[in-house]
Write a structure and sequence with these properties.
Elements lengths: L2 H22 L5 H8 L3 H4 L1 H13 L2 H5 L5 H21 L3 H28 L6 H29 L2 H22 L11 H5 L5 H21 L2 H7 L5 H51 L3 H27 L6 H30 L5 H21 L2 H4 L2
Helix pairs in contact: 1-7, 1-8, 1-9, 4-7, 4-15, 6-7, 6-9, 7-8, 7-15, 8-9, 8-13, 8-14, 11-14, 11-15, 11-16, 12-13, 13-14, 13-16, 14-15, 15-16
């Protein structure tokens, strides 16, 4: 890969980190936000849930609408919207305005993320594409797991306004880097909306979407309650739990790097094995989750697998609709957000009905169903057809 491509992928990775961090970073400071705006914790939670809902709704539509425009200009537009939204969040004392300042950028979120994957793929040879995507995915993982403790630390050490300013600063740096270092990227062949939407007529696309919803439900249905699990089942202290979350996050990044190599080497085999590998982790988790040392080892392996899973999700949808990359990446974002929502809701239901230990069954059930979808896709389509 050439030097300019390395720089481009680095900027995209930091850009994705800034966007995802704006979405997920507030999770660590929700109690502080509730105090700051004088609202209940459940009302403050709307900053997370409405953001995710906006992403799920705009996933297929917004990347499609902007697919014919110069990619550099579109990226600058999205980053500009995020910077403005972040600045409003720093200075406002009105919760409704803070909510609007988060929801408006949320609609633009899928445009940048889907473009980041498309541009990364276009900047390298077809064989190297999974590796390029896996590098951008490091930004996704970092935004989800590294951003939360950083923002939490800034809020505790300095102020909630400075924590909000962190989002603005990261997005502003990427805006300037994109402006200066990213070349103009006009779209050579503009695909009609009809041509892009036609991928929805293919059964392979729908089998892939269903598999990805279920795979992400399997990961987030359990991960969403990891803190609760470590507290009530493993009886860990809050400091140890923070360390476990950091281990999971670091392992996630290792998983991204491994996924690039695995998907480049033998994508189909990687996808088929994945549900069984994660399923084995969940079964061991159910049996030995109350012991600290096995739990720490499992958290590390689980984090690596979750990192691989994120890349598998993007590859599985992209390879079923590669003729419409921007739209396919939008579908991927919607599918994973739906999977997260369904998984977290089902996990909560299992915990309230059966107890915290049984949350792993949401993961196992989702993995079982995702294996059926993966089998159906592989049964109906040869590898050559899948990548056509």
């Amino acid at each position: 890969m050439t030097k300019p491509n390395n720089l481009l992928i680095f900027i995209l990775t930091i850009g994705v980190f800034g966007i995802i961090n704006t979405e997920m970073g507030v999770i660590g400071i929700l109690p502080s936000i509730a105090d700051h705006f004088h609202v209940s914790i459940s009302k403050a939670g709307l900053l997370v849930s409405l953001f995710a809902l906006a992403v799920a709704v705009s996933g297929p539509t917004m990347p499609l609408l902007f697919s014919g425009m110069n990619r550099k200009k579109v990226m600058l537009l999205v980053l500009g919207v995020f910077v403005l939204g972040n600045i409003v969040s720093i200075f406002t004392t009105n919760f409704t305005l803070a909510l609007v300042a988060r929801i408006v950028p949320a609609f633009f979120h899928p445009i940048y993320c889907s473009l980041a994957f498309t541009v990364a793929v276009d900047s390298v040879s077809k064989e190297e594409a999974p590796k390029a995507v896996s590098k951008v995915f490091i930004g996704v993982s970092a935004g989800m797991v590294v951003g939360v403790p950083i923002v939490s630390f800034i809020a505790n050490a300095v102020s909630i306004e400075m924590a909000m300013a962190f989002f603005a600063i990261v997005n502003a740096i990427v805006f300037l880097a994109t402006l200066i270092f990213v070349p103009s990227m006009p779209v050579e062949e503009k695909l009609s909306y009809g041509a892009q939407l036609s991928v929805l007529k293919k059964s392979i696309t729908w089998l892939s979407i269903m598999a990805v919803i279920l795979l992400n439900s399997a990961i987030f249905g359990v991960y969403s309650y990891l803190t609760e699990y470590l507290k009530t089942i493993t009886n860990m202290s809050s400091n140890t739990i923070s360390l476990m979350l950091l281990i999971y996050g670091g392992a996630n990044i290792i998983g991204n790097i491994a996924a690039g190599k695995l998907l480049t080497k033998n994508a189909n085999k990687t996808v088929v094995i994945f549900p069984f590998a994660l399923g084995a982790v969940y079964i061991i988790l159910f049996l030995f989750g109350q012991f600290t040392i096995p739990m720490a080892i499992l958290t590390l392996i689980w984090g690596i697998l979750a990192g691989i899973g994120g890349n598998i999700n993007q590859y599985w949808i992209m390879s079923s609709a590669s003729e419409s990359p921007d739209f396919a990446n939008g579908l991927f974002l919607t599918a994973v957000n739906l999977g997260t929502t369904i998984g977290a809701a089902a996990g909560g239901l299992f915990i309230s009905e059966l107890g915290t230990q049984y949350v792993v069954f949401v993961g196992l059930l989702s993995l079982l169903l995702s294996s059926v979808m993966i089998f159906l896709r592989n049964y109906k389509f040869t590898p050559a057809q899948q990548l056509s």
